[in-house]
Amino acid sequence: MTPLLEVRDLRVSFPAAGGRTIHPVDGVSFSLERGRTLALVGESGCGKSLTGLALLRLVPPPGRVDDSSVIRLEGKDLMSFDEAAMRAVRGGRIGMVFQDPMTSLNPVLTAGDQIAEAVRAHRPVTRQEARARAAALLGEVGIADPARRLDEYPHQLSGGMRQRVMIAIALAAEPEIIIADEPTTALDVTVQAQILELLDRLRLERGMAVLLITHDLGVVAGRADDMCVMYAGQIVERASTRQVFEAPAHPYTHGLFGSVPTIAGPRERLTPISGSVPPPAAWPTGCRFAPRCPERFARCDSMPSLRRAGPGHDARCWLTGDEA
After folding, report:
1. Rounded CA Rg of the chain
2. Is residue 60 classed exposed, middle or buried when 0-12, 13-18 and 19+ CB atoms within 10 A define those classes?
3. Is 197 in contact with 189 (CB distance < 8 Å)?
4. How far apart are the C-alpha atoms of 149 and 112, rounded to whole Å?
5. Nearest to 276 by CA among 42, 99, 50, 52
6. How far apart are the C-alpha atoms of 184 and 216, rounded to whole Å?
7. The sheet that has 226-231: what strands, in order across it?
8. Quick one: average pLDDT of 32-41?
9. Which tens digit of pLDDT belongs to each residue from 160-171?
10. Most exposed among 14, 181, 239, 311, judged by the fewest C-beta atoms under 10 Å?
């Protein structure tokens, strides 16, 4: 069965000082099935958001998606699409919910105008029909009194409402996939839960797939079917969410769980991961996590491939089994 979205060896290149080329996204591979949620998890700076932009070929210049990358939507090669064809995909088949709605929304256009603009970009409708569709979408994403909210500007809306407007824009052309990039950033805990529940409900009602980009393991728990853990531009672990939570295989994933507080079990001191994600120009030649890894040994000076850690469970670590 062909996955809805298939990504193989996705690589993003940027020119660097001294004529070098760096790859902040370096050989990322995963697949996304219709009706499922895949979480892409990792610290800031690991390449998660850039991966989401690369799928839509929206990498900011002078960066570019390497020609060797494979991005297939229902078997169709998006890398072969010209710009006009990609514009139809963006929003039409793949919707994007950006990280910060306050900066992503146009401050001088009303919520209704911005949603209607997205509708008209992909549907042959009149202005009145687009406005009616915008009001319906505002109601669908849980905004009360949508007819009044249509004429309000972003600064007149709460953070949760702005995020709902962003989701309404992403849904305007009824896409098959939603990429949600840190959709709960800067929201309080109650509103975070509401936004995540909204995405779950829309996925179930519309049969969409969701790519959830986040640094927060609490967001992933109970919401994502599958997850990929990303570090320094690479996938270092991928499996079902349950497998990763029950038996994390990569030392980096262990470190992420060790730095998360829990209300269950005995009180223990949190164990943060030492150091920080290095910039792409300073990545080691071997395992990129090795300088921070408590289990480092001599073989870590060479780069491991993804290796089988169990059925349907891969990890980029020499401590795991055979090459996946």
Report:
1. 20
2. exposed
3. no
4. 7
5. 42
6. 10
7. 94-97, 177-181, 209-214, 37-41, 226-231, 234-240, 313-315, 307-310
8. 96
9. 999 999 999 999
10. 311
DSSP string, 162-184: HHHHHHHHHHTT--SEEEEESTT
* Neighbouring-strand partners of residue 15: 21
Instruction: Name the residue among 309, 316, 302 with its Cα closest to residue 232.
Output: 316
Angstrom distance (rounded) from CA 320 to CA 231: 17
Which of 71, 80, 81 has its CA nearest to residue 9?
Answer: 71
**Residue closest to 46 by CA, chosen among 23, 63, 69, 19:** 23
| Cα 69 versus chain centre, distance | 18
Q: Which two tokens stand for residue 73?
A: 């939507």
Number of residues assigned to the chain: 324
